[in-house]
Write a structure and sequence with these properties.
The complex is a heterotrimer of chains A (about 850), B (about 300) and C (about 200).
Chain A lengths: L14 E7 L8 E7 L4 E6 L17 H5 L9 E3 L12 E3 L2 H18 L4 E5 L5 H4 L22 H8 L4 E4 L6 E5 L11 H14 L3 E6 L4 H5 L2 E4 L5 H14 L5 H7 L5 E2 L14 E4 L4 E4 L14 E3 L2 E5 H9 L4 H8 L3 H14 L7 E4 L2 E4 L3 E5 L1 H4 L4 H15 L8 E4 L54 H7 L12 E5 L3 H4 L4 H9 L3 E5 L12 E2 L10 E3 L6 E2 L2 E3 L12 H12 L2 H11 L18 H13 L3 H7 L4 E2 L2 H4 L14 H16 L32 E6 L13 H7 L8 E3 L1 H6 L7 E5 L4 E8 L7 E5 L41 E8 L4 H5 L20
Parallel strand pairs in A: 6-20, 8-9, 8-18, 9-10, 20-21, 21-22, 27-31, 28-30
Antiparallel strand pairs in A: 1-2, 2-3, 4-5, 4-22, 7-19, 11-15, 12-13, 14-15, 16-17, 23-25, 24-26, 27-32, 29-30, 29-32
Helix pairs in contact in A: 2-17, 4-13, 7-10, 7-11, 7-13, 10-11
Chain B lengths: L17 E2 L5 H23 L2 H22 L17 H25 L7 H26 L11 H22 L8 H32 L1 H11 L4 H22 L4 H24 L2 E2 L8
Antiparallel strand pairs in B: 1-2
Chain C lengths: L3 E6 L8 H10 L8 E10 L2 E10 L7 H5 L5 E3 L5 E3 L9 H5 L6 E2 L2 H6 L9 H7 L7 E2 L5 H5 L5 H5 L5 E5 L6 H9 L14 E4 L1
Parallel strand pairs in C: 1-9
Antiparallel strand pairs in C: 1-8, 2-3, 4-5, 6-7
Classes of the chains: A alpha/beta (about 850), B mainly alpha (about 300), C alpha+beta (about 200).
The structure holds ligand MGD (2 copies), iron/sulfur cluster (5 copies) and molybdenum atom (MO).
């Protein structure tokens, strides 16, 4: 770019441009960093050469400079000198040297490790650095305190692992013409690479006329940009999806050819729910052409039956598809409307629109790279809000079912599996499984601990064989350790790049007790947060402009590696996370096993010359170099020139990468997992085995209600939260540029309610409210908008920060997560997915409660933001 | 929903009416003292009341300038404000102030020192120039406001008229109060003429205010919003209570029925000035920008 | 000579305000100061309700009232139509601010330069290198990133916009993307009744 010595605009002042990668959220848009001749970072722009974000950055990505120069950053290791701990208690930090810091931390960890490695409880959350995430495996610790992946994807990731053998999923913006967005900001405000995906989706909408329908309790950004907003009562999305399926199946609006050919829908299911197999374990199907049962791989197969009842090997059986039909019998749109509030006529119309848009009747085809593929340009997309419910596994499965019926799984224009990180170019993510099906990979985030009684993990991960770690259960177990047979208590916490005290559901006060029970807490972060407030030692890390990395996380339409390199030397006496954790591993005597864990986790085992060797402490730069080499054989100098190795996703990996195998329409493995776990629990005599949530294990989704709908009737509203594009969780709020826009956006400054509901309750905008769930309470001012389902009260993440030294963050009177349950009743027995919606009742107050005014709460009272006509003061 | 039903959105990122927040209290003070000083000067000049002339000059010269400078973002460069009289009423007004201070001051000086005969041609010329400058100062702010197409409440020819009337009436009442037991005691005709003038002024102001509200209400949605703010919502109590009741009705009643006496006139003057000041402030506060677009069906 | 203008595609805009932050970054704007804002408007009644996002910035009016009232000559128009404010000349009188029908003028209060973006009184190196271009107390606004335009680049807010909702171009060139969009999709100017002849168009 042209440099102009007299320039007033930052980007054209004399200086140099450094290619790097954003990390203002967990995704990885690449960027260009401008460093002035005086060594000051004065601009960050998107990298136009990246086919993912194409020069674009979201507001968070644009505000990275403010994070870098934040005067509140940790500037050197710190030691707590105030033994008293609390959310409002000044830790009285004392600066110490790195040597002293490592001495203290390694000493405490060694002590715990020598006694019982289970005493250590890690919370290591950086999605861009899975190498830090897996650090506890180096000493065999499976405790888990970080919240990532559960509140959002506890059930989502395992189900994607079953259906696509992938981590995430998204609709194919390249060809999709009809996009249903259920409970996600994908393509508009959040989820996958917000900056990149909103570009792809905007082009599809405006250039190709793609139609969008948003199913959500609120008129979100996605809703506002859609042709249609379908308001839905929270936590009823499964019922909505099943009602769509009901109509599609009864109207025969399905891609039957796909179901027969590419899925296990024709596999015969016996009365016990298992497939009917011959002695050799081969599954039967029913050949309609000749009217007899055959094995799935019989070369003489004619047309496979999807419906009907048969008897094979002496067992009454039905094709899996028929089983689903039987469930759908009770899912008429009229019946489901009573639950979802979505009018039956709307459901019928949407089913038809989906069917028509998917071009099934025409059986449209498209040629891509010489392959003739089915074109199915209509798809059902969903995420956090839609799936984050107690019966999460079934809920995800129900959404997939709509896509199955549309025949669009991994088809051009359809619903696609999105991998977390392919690791190297040729790496396919599909492997063949048994009986012609793909091999399911529910554990997308690495190995899970084996069954054990008494439990070896504090959050009971021993009993979630399909799940993602349910960290909220730490609190449940903490409150009732005897009940769960715990023989240890974690008391040494290691946190890096994670803010569980913000992110976790359940009342803060109880989490504070949990934190108080810790003997030692070490936190590595770059700025103060709710969690750093509790630390005994702070190990400050470099920020994104000061360190190396190589990653690309969940890119829907692209693949590759994005390089992070230091644009400037560290501002302060900080270290990279790699340096911190290899140093600790070394001092704990587990460096070799850590390197070996990394060889597996980062895929180096696949290229032996890249494998980390024992006894060596690898730097962030060296790890980055090897990851780059693993991807495409290019060394760092190549990456420094190109910035990234991102290309559009290879079509053979993107479209039907499982060609020739069958997909799991019917997830028989649920029953195996259930029976296996039950057998183990029985054998071990686990005392609570009879009350375990066995009914949650279902090979097909059912209409069972989530328990949130069964709370006492005085809780007459539903409460939801949401992420918009300006915020990374609540975290970016300490950034002045983000504050400047967020506190001026009406949706982010008040508890949102529909005016009709407010009128019924005699409430008006700006009224002070007490909002209570059966689990907790919060306070705030009321905001009104027609864009809300009348049953729903919404709380933006911007209103949910607890007190503490969070540089300039405006606090509201509570945190939404205080309202959420953290118990087993509200946890999916299959995956550990917690419920993220709650029931509420609200009361108008004449004034703020005294304890908030006194400042005697963990929340600060900030009253200026939601008053009429004010916005944020300036 | 019509544009006029859009809300006031303050500084939030929503479509609606936004308060003008650039000209506020210091500017209201400057306007008030600038006009009042010039009005007092002019009335005193016409009455030959030297004390009032000097007081008027001081009010404009010191108070107005001080508040104006305190409003200015870059006071050190405020001399530049004079550069564009061809298009800017602010420049013209500034020239008016310079003229008023120069001619008026000179006039006061020469008459006071007796350097020139009061009826000499030069003195008359000075008087004329000072009077003309005073007129400019009394009205230019109204012109500056009326030229803002942005704020419908202000965008009317009635703005300079209201400035002129307020300034003149304020000048008359101040002259009356200041001269009541002084030079006016000796000039009963002038005194009753001034009394009548004040009453007429108050009446005229009332009519101009009514027309102003009427014009704004029918001018544009933003104008209507401003009128609503002044008469029915945020500022209604101040507008009806202070601008109208205290500022117009009370002095008019006092002057008409309060009997003649210093106390009455002083009270009337004080009330009128309070109303005048409130008017200056509220007319700024109630100024709103129109919503940039309206998408409501 | 080009005549620069901007088109906002309201179908594309998702109200993310990346443009706003990008502009703050490019221009080193103090806290609470905006050269551009994206506003939202909700209309209709549940359940047939919608929301539109409307980006706004200085319209670089051809008949710019802000320029007309400026007593110091600080506001001027470049030959390419960009309306500029000269920080050397502006006295901060605010006349332009009350004359702009679009509320696009902004005061750069002297205090905010001292308080710093974090409000701690600590001014970051980023701010230090950027604030030198302004005179504290002046009133200013978007300049279409004139320096970038001179260097042949699009404005910062345009470049970063994740949905390409902002299209910058030469309105005199009938083949520019901006002109084409205005023609094909019927561009509307904001508040045409104010007779300012904005060079900003909205398409929806
Ligand atoms: N900008 C931004 N992007 C992000 C993140 C971020 O913090 N900020 N975080 C990243 C992470 S870790 C995740 S998990 C993803 C999540 O990305 P999303 O899935 O988009 O997450 P949310 O906004 O939490 O939830 C989506 C929507 O669900 C709605 N909702 C809540 N309850 C219900 C319900 O019961 N039913 C339905 N239908 N809708 C409901 C909310 O209104 C919300 O708009 O985003 C990733 N990307
Ligand atoms: N109310 C509510 N609760 C939620 C959610 C919600 O939307 N609303 N979302 C849920 C979801 S989906 C998730 S995934 C979780 C997320 O929960 P967390 O992953 O805990 O999310 P963050 O708050 O972003 O915490 C990340 C931390 O990393 C720090 N950090 C940033 N950059 C660096 C760096 O370079 N180095 C180091 N060492 N640290 C850094 C940040 O300062 C921050 O403290 O929250 C869950 N909880
Ligand atoms: S989506 Fe995430 S990675 Fe991309 S620009 Fe925004 S914050 Fe950065
Ligand atoms: S960056 Fe683009 S999409 Fe986002 S608010 Fe600005 S104009 Fe709209
Ligand atoms: S939009 Fe306002 S500031 Fe910009 S040129 Fe027009 S009148 Fe001047
Ligand atoms: S504030 Fe500056 S630019 Fe605006 S009118 Fe006054 S001198 Fe001109
Ligand atoms: S054109 Fe430049 S100065 Fe104007 S709003 Fe966009 S980024 Fe800001
Ligand atoms: Mo998440």
């Amino acid at each position: 770019m042209a440099a102009n010595p007299k320039a007033v605009h930052n980007s054209i002042k004399p200086g140099r441009w450094v290619r790097s990668t954003c990390k203002m959220c967990l995704h990885s848009c690449t960027n260009l960093i401008h460093v002035t001749e005086d060594g000051i970072i004065n601009t960050v722009e998107g990298d136009p050469t990246n086919p993912s974000n194409r020069g674009k950055l979201c507001p968070k990505g644009n505000s990275a400079i403010m994070r870098h120069y934040d005067p509140n950053r940790f500037k050197q290791p710190l030691k707590r000198t105030n033994p008293e701990k609390g959310p409002n208690v000044d830790p009285k930090w004392q600066p110490i040297s790195w040597d002293e810091a490592f001495d203290i931390v390694a000493g405490k960890l060694k002590e715990a490790l020598a006694d019982d490695p289970r005493r250590i409880i890690p919370s290591l959350e950086d999605f861009q650095k899975m190498n830090i995430w897996v650090w506890p495996l180096a000493f065999g610790n499976f405790n888990f305190f970080q919240s990532g992946g559960t509140m959002c994807g506890g059930a989502y990731h395992p189900v994607n692992g079953y259906i696509h053998s992938a981590f995430a999923a998204a609709n194919d913006a390249k060809y999709c013409n009809f996009w249903v967005n259920d409970g996600t900001g994908d393509g508009f405000s959040s989820h996958l690479h917000a900056a990149a995906q909103s570009y792809w989706v905007a082009n599809a909408r405006v250039d190709r006329g793609m139609k969008c329908v948003t199913v959500e309790p609120r008129l979100s950004i996605s809703g506002a940009k859609s042709e249609e907003w379908v308001p839905i009562r929270p936590a009823t999305d499964r019922h909505f999806a099943l009602s769509l399926c009901h109509v599609m199946v009864s109207e025969r609006w399905c891609d039957f050819a796909f179901l027969r050919r590419d899925t296990n829908a024709p596999y015969l299911v016996g009365p016990d729910g298992y497939f009917v197999r011959n002695a050799a374990g081969k599954v039967y199907v029913w050949d309609e052409t000749v009217g007899q049962a055959k094995l799935w791989d019989d070369p003489t197969l004619g047309k496979l039956a999807l419906e009907g009842s048969y008897t094979v090997e002496g067992k009454a059986c039905k094709p899996a598809f028929q089983r689903f039909r039987d469930i759908l019998a009770e899912c008429s749109p009229e019946a489901m409307e009573k639950i979802t509030t979505v009018p039956a006529a709307t459901v019928r119309r949407l089913a038809k629109q989906l069917y028509d848009a998917a071009e099934i009747a025409r059986d449209s085809k498209i040629e891509i790279d010489g392959r003739i593929l089915p074109l199915r340009p209509a798809a059902y997309n969903y995420y956090r809000g839609a799936q984050g419910h107690k019966l999460g596994f079934q809920t995800n499965h129900a959404f997939k079912m709509v896509n199955f019926l549309l025949g669009n799984i991994d088809a051009p224009g359809g619903h696609m599996g999105v991998t977390l990180d392919d690791q190297w170019v040729e790496h396919g993510h599909i492997e063949p499984g048994e009986n012609g099906m793909i091999k399911p990979t529910p554990h997308q985030l690495g190995p899970v601990p084996p069954f054990s009684w008494p439990p070896q993990t504090f959050h009971l991960m021993d009993y979630f064989p399909v799940g993602v770690h349910p960290p909220h259960l730490n609190l449940e177990v903490f409150m009732n350790p005897e009940k769960y047979g715990l023989e240890f208590r974690p008391d040494t916490m290691v946190v890096c790049h994670s803010n569980p005290l913000w992110a976790m559901q359940g009342p803060r006060e109880k989490w504070f007790e949990f934190m108080r029970s810790m003997k030692f807490i070490v936190v590595s972060d770059i700025i103060p947060t709710e969690t750093t407030q509790w630390a005994d030692v702070i190990l400050p890390s470099h920020d994104v402009f000061e360190s190396w990395n190589m990653t690309m996380i969940e890119p829907p339409h692209t693949e590759g590696m994005c390089m992070r390199q230091p644009a400037v030397p560290p501002l302060y006496d900080t270290k990279s996370e790699e340096e911190i954790f290899t140093e600790l591993a070394d001092r704990l005597g587990v460096l070799d096993s850590y390197n070996q864990v990394l060889n597996f986790a980062l895929g180096f085992v696949n290229k032996p010359e890249l494998m980390l060797q024992p006894g060596i402490r690898y730097t962030d730069k060296e790890i980055a170099r090897r990851k780059g080499l693993l991807w495409n054989g290019q060394d760092l100098d190549w990456y420094m020139e190109h910035g990234h190795a991102v290309t559009e996703r290879r079509n053979d990996k993107w479209y039907r990468p499982w060609e020739g195998l069958r997909l799991h329409f019917y997830i028989e493995d649920m029953l195996k997992q259930r029976d296996d776990l039950r057998a183990k629990m029985d054998a071990a005599g686990v005392p609570y085995r009879d009350t375990w949530a066995w009914d949650d294990y279902q090979p097909l989704p059912t209409t069972r209600l989530d328990p949130v709908h069964e709370e006492p009737p005085e809780y007459d509203l539903y409460g939801i939260f949401f992420k918009d594009i300006q915020l990374n969780f609540g975290e970016s709020l300490s950034n002045p540029w983000i504050q400047d826009i967020v506190y001026r956006d009406p949706v982010h400054i008040a508890f949102m309610l529909n005016p009709q509901t407010a009128a019924k309750k005699g409430l008006k905008a700006t009224d002070i409210l007490k909002v209570e769930s059966p689990y907790g309470r919060i306070y705030g001012r009321l905001g009104l908008s027609e864009g809300w389902h009348p049953d729903t009260l919404g709380v933006s993440n911007s209103l949910s920060r607890a007190k503490g030294k969070l540089g300039g963050v405006k606090h509201a009177g509570g945190h939404f997560n205080d309202l959420l349950p953290y118990d087993l009743r509200n946890t999916d027995g299959v995956t550990g997915q917690p419920e993220t919606v709650c029931k509420l009742r609200i009361t108008r107050l004449d004034d703020w409660p005294q304890f908030l005014k006194d400042g005697g709460s963990v929340y600060d009272l900030v009253d200026e933001i939601a008053l009429p006509g004010k916005g944020r003061k300036h | 929903m019509a544009t006029r039903d859009l809300p006031i959105v303050g500084d939030s990122f929503a479509v609606g009416y936004r308060f003008q927040r650039y000209w506020d209290t210091p500017m209201a003070n400057a306007f008030f003292f600038g006009e009042l000083g010039a009005g007092l000067f002019l009335v005193s000049l016409l009455c030959g009341f030297a004390g009032g002339m000097v007081a008027g000059l001081l009010i404009t010269g010191v108070l107005k300038s001080w508040f104006h400078l305190s409003h200015m973002g870059v006071p050190g460069k405020s001399w530049r404000a004079i550069l564009r009289p061809d298009r800017s009423w602010v420049s013209r007004g500034l020239m008016g102030i310079v003229g008023l201070m120069g001619f008026g001051g000179l006039h006061a000086l020469v008459t006071w020192t007796g350097a020139l005969a009061p009826d000499s041609a030069v003195a008359l010329l000075l008087q004329l120039a000072a009077a003309a400058s005073a007129l400019v100062v009394m009205t230019y702010q109204g012109f500056a406001m009326s030229h803002s197409t942005a704020i419908s409440l202000w965008n009317t020819g009635l703005m300079p008229v209201s400035s002129l009337l307020y300034a003149a009436t304020g000048g008359v009442l101040l002259t009356l109060a200041a001269g009541w037991n002084g030079f006016l005691a000796m000039a009963p005709d002038l005194r009753s003429a001034l009394l009548t003038g004040a009453l007429i002024g108050l009446l005229a102001i009332a009519m101009v205010l009514l027309s102003l509200l009427h014009a704004a209400h029918h001018g544009s949605p933003g104008g209507r919003k401003s009128v609503e703010l002044l008469t029915r919502s945020y500022f209604a109590a101040w507008f009806w209570g202070v601008v109208c009741a205290v500022g117009l009705v009370v002095p008019a009643l006092l002057l008409a029925f309060g009997g003649e006496g210093f106390g009455t006139v002083a009270l009337a003057a004080a009330a009128m000035l309070a109303g005048y000041y409130a008017y200056r402030l509220l007319i700024f506060k109630a100024g709103v920008f129109e919503p940039i677009m309206n998408f409501r069906p | 000579m080009a005549r620069y203008g901007m088109v906002f595609d309201l179908k594309r805009c998702i109200g993310c305000n990346a443009c706003v932050v990008g502009c703050k970054q490019e221009n080193s704007l103090p806290d609470g100061v905006f050269f551009t804002r994206t506003l939202s408007q909700e209309y209709g009644v549940y359940p047939t309700v919608n929301r539109v996002y409307i980006p706004t910035l200085c319209n670089h009016c051809e008949d710019a009232p802000c320029q007309k009232v400026c007593p110091s000559g600080a506001t001027y128009t470049r030959p390419d139509g960009i309306v500029m404010v000269d920080p050397e000349k502006c006295i901060g009188c605010g006349s332009c601010a009350v004359a702009c029908p679009y509320d696009q003028r902004t005061e750069l209060k002297a205090e905010s330069f001292k308080a710093g973006l974090f409000g701690t009184g600590e001014v970051t190196p980023f701010e230090k290198q950027g604030y030198v271009r302004f005179t504290p107390g002046m009133v200013t606004k978007c300049d279409f990133c004139s320096g970038r335009v001179d260097a042949g680049l699009d404005p910062a807010c345009v470049v970063t916009c994740p949905t390409d909702a902002r299209i910058f171009g030469d309105l005199d060139d009938p083949n520019s993307k901006a002109s084409r969009l205005i023609r094909e999709r019927g561009g509307r100017q904001p508040l045409p009744e104010k007779n300012t002849r904005p060079k900003v168009y909205y398409i929806d």
